[in-house]
Design a protein that fits this description.
heterodimer, A: alpha/beta, six-stranded parallel β-sheet, B: six-stranded parallel β-sheet, 6 helices, 12 strands
């Protein structure tokens, strides 16, 4: 994470792209959230609905399976990424599939589905505009809902000119038109469409897919086989619960009142219908999620509906960008679920990539307490010996000092003397070894000339005199 | 094998059943004038709203809208309630591409004409069920989508829609405005994969 962050901070194009796009997301979200007077109650309802579902997850998953099957769909269960990829490639191979179209799905990114299908000899085309650019550029998505938020229009034009022969000066609307025409031919030729799932309704066996472009609708309508991939946490109990989640999702994610398309798919095409897939397959994926479910401190992370709101308010994400997290899930939620799903030993740095400012909790539509879980994961990283001796020693010394007023007073007094030659223009730019690391990338504020305790003591006297009606002298 | 292993793992991980009750659902909003709210929100999305008195008049209005845009061919839904509108379109010599047509033909039509089952005031959403005579792609492939909606079918919000229950069709599509994307350089583009223009033809008071 650290090396990536340093590279990201030096990348001027990335910094420009992020500082243009991220604040816009934030502002739109705030405007439309404020329109709903019962917004806070909606968040509470969503959080409690998810908690209820997670507490009865076995029942709801079994009900979902029964209902999907009753509507003519097939349900497959995958313990991990490899099994999910095997199920889907086997399905495709058995049915003679040559061409696959996909709509944006972080879960299929998580299981690395595209390379698996390509290795099995199939052509795979991403059809979300952003994901299509990612695929053409051989890049990775950097935001849960805005995959190429790290790219400027000019760099997208460069990719299109290299891969599709489009003139370099092409404007975004020209690029979109070229993509639309190229991808429409792909839709018409494809045998299989693969999507993620936003919500799966246990009561009705309905899969809900939310999008703005229409590519997910094409992916689920035109090819003869539709395969949907979902993590076990995507199930919700009833159709009536969906309104709560759809209202929260669009407003939290893109700041729209509603996403352009929400498709509620209940089974494959029925008799006398002229379009829609012949076959519908649902792949239900674990891949570490049951471990998170069993973990009472981290389970709350499974409420996540992947709206990306926490990324857009995170000061670390806005500077470092999504790639720094080395995971398809970035930002505050990524810093929690990546180590939770993969294990701390493989992503133990991530929980430290946060200022714990708490902006993410305030916007989360399902009220996930991300800072609490980041702290919990930090504690676990320390106990697992994943944190260097310097940090541990410093933390221990900090605790020693902070646990005693006398020690704090003594150290403060000492510090005020030592810092004198270090202060330049009211701040400390460079601390001597072994604290030089602290000031390598930031300045330290000097200790105040008067300690707070002294200020407080004198104020209390002033306030007390005032309340007795005496003059404050 | 994986099914039982996975479900057993889930069962071992969940909390005891008493842990969390399902919360009460929010009640649908009560709106004095859902039609006015729908029209207002549609304007914010750039969705045109055409008000007509009858389904025949809807056909005439659609023919005029198509003529104004130089569109001669329209992919249409063929359901009993739309028949008077379709007759009118034929009379105005609009070439109709029916539900049985190959998808390539639907894709080449200049417009799609469909009928919404419901409208949602809060978001200016139209709700389109799939079914016989109702191809899903007629509302997606042509660059212009004209959707007929009865004013009396406008509900205040999504809660009102989903509380109605009933049997779901194989596909129920909620459509809110034209297809869009802001992926490239944060520039808003209409007509990413679907229509660039959506017009709601609102029938009745």
């Amino acid at each position: 994470m650290i090396a990536n962050t340093e590279r990201a901070l030096r990348d001027r194009a990335l910094q420009e792209a992020l500082s243009r796009a991220v604040p816009v997301f934030r502002q739109l979200r705030n405007e439309v959230a404020a329109e709903i007077p019962e917004w806070e109650a909606l968040r509470e309802t969503a959080a409690r609905t998810k908690d209820h579902t997670l507490a009865h997850l076995d029942t709801y998953l079994a009900q979902l399976e029964t209902q999907v099957t009753a509507r003519g769909g097939a349900v497959h269960w995958a313990s991990d990424a490899a099994e999910a990829c095997r199920i889907i490639t086997d399905l495709a191979r058995l049915r003679g599939v040559r061409r696959v179209v996909k709509s944006k799905s972080m879960t299929t990114e998580e299981i690395d589905l595209n390379p698996a299908l390509q290795a099995a000899g199939m052509t795979v085309v991403e059809t979300d505009l952003g994901e299509y650019v990612v695929q053409l550029a051989d890049d990775r998505p950097s935001h849960i809902i805005a995959p190429i938020i790290h790219k400027s229009a000019a760099s997208v034009a460069e990719v299109f000119s290299r891969r599709l022969g489009v003139p370099q000066q092409a404007r975004p609307e020209d690029l979109a038109r070229v993509a639309r025409e190229t991808l429409r031919a792909e839709f018409l030729a494809a045998d299989m469409g693969i999507t993620g799932v936003n919500f799966a309704i246990a009561e009705t066996g309905t899969l809900v897919i939310v999008e703005n472009e229409g590519n997910a609708r094409l992916t689920t309508t035109r090819p003869r086989i539709h395969v949907a991939v979902m993590g076990i946490e995507k199930v919700i109990p009833r159709l009536a619960d969906l309104g709560v989640f759809l209202r929260l999702l669009a407003r939290s994610a893109t700041g729209q009142r509603a996403s352009v398309y929400a498709s509620l798919l209940t089974g494959p095409r029925r008799a006398a219908e002229t379009d829609g897939p012949d076959e519908l397959h649902l792949v239900i994926l674990d891949n570490g999620r049951t471990r998170v479910l069993a973990d009472s401190e981290l389970r709350e992370a499974l409420r996540c509906i992947r709206c990306g709101a926490c990324l857009n308010v995170c000061p670390v994400f806005e500077r470092a960008g999504g790639h720094a997290y080395e995971s398809e899930y970035s930002g505050p939620i990524g810093a929690v679920i990546t180590p939770a799903l993969r294990g701390l030993e493989r992503a133990g740095e991530l929980p430290f990539a946060s200022t714990l400012c708490g902006a993410c909790v305030d916007v989360c539509p399902v009220k996930i307490n991300l800072p609490r879980m980041l702290l919990e994961l930090r504690g676990r990283a320390v106990r697992a010996g994943l944190v260097g001796w310097k940090d541990r020693l410093f933390a221990r010394a900090w605790v020693f000092v902070m646990c005693s007023p006398t020690r704090l007073r003594l150290l403060g007094g000492l510090g005020r003397v030592i810092q004198r030659p270090l202060i330049r223009r009211g701040r400390i730019d460079r601390l001597p070894y072994p604290f030089s690391g602290w000031t390598a990338s930031r300045t330290a504020p000097p200790l105040a000339a008067t300690p707070f305790r002294a200020w407080w003591a004198s104020h209390r006297i002033v306030a007390a005199r005032a309340s007795r009606g005496e003059d404050a002298k | 094998v994986s099914r039982d292993t996975l479900l057993a793992r889930v069962r071992a991980a969940v909390l005891p059943p008493a842990a969390a009750e399902l919360p009460l659902l929010p009640a649908p909003q009560t709106l004095d004038d859902p039609v006015a709210v729908f029209i207002d929100r549609a304007r914010d999305l750039g969705v045109g709203v055409e008000r007509v008195a009858s389904i025949q008049e809807a056909g005439a209005r659609i023919a005029a809208l198509l003529a104004a845009r130089g569109v001669r061919r329209a992919a249409v839904w063929e359901t009993p309630d739309l028949v008077p509108a379709l007759d009118r379109l034929r009379a105005e010599s609009v070439e109709l591409v029916g539900p049985e047509s190959p998808v390539e033909t639907i894709a080449q039509a200049g417009a799609g004409v469909t009928g919404a089952e419901w409208g949602i005031a809060e978001t200016a959403t139209v709700v389109l069920p799939s079914g016989p005579g109702r191809p899903r792609l007629a509302s997606l492939l042509p660059p212009l989508h004209l959707v007929i909606l009865r004013a009396g079918r406008i509900l205040p919000d999504l809660h009102a829609l989903f509380l109605r229950g009933g049997t779901l069709p194989s596909s129920l599509t909620l459509i809110t405005g034209p297809s869009r994307s802001a992926d490239i350089g944060s520039v808003l583009i209409l007509g990413a994969h679907g229509p660039t223009e959506v017009i709601v033809v609102l029938v009745g008071e």
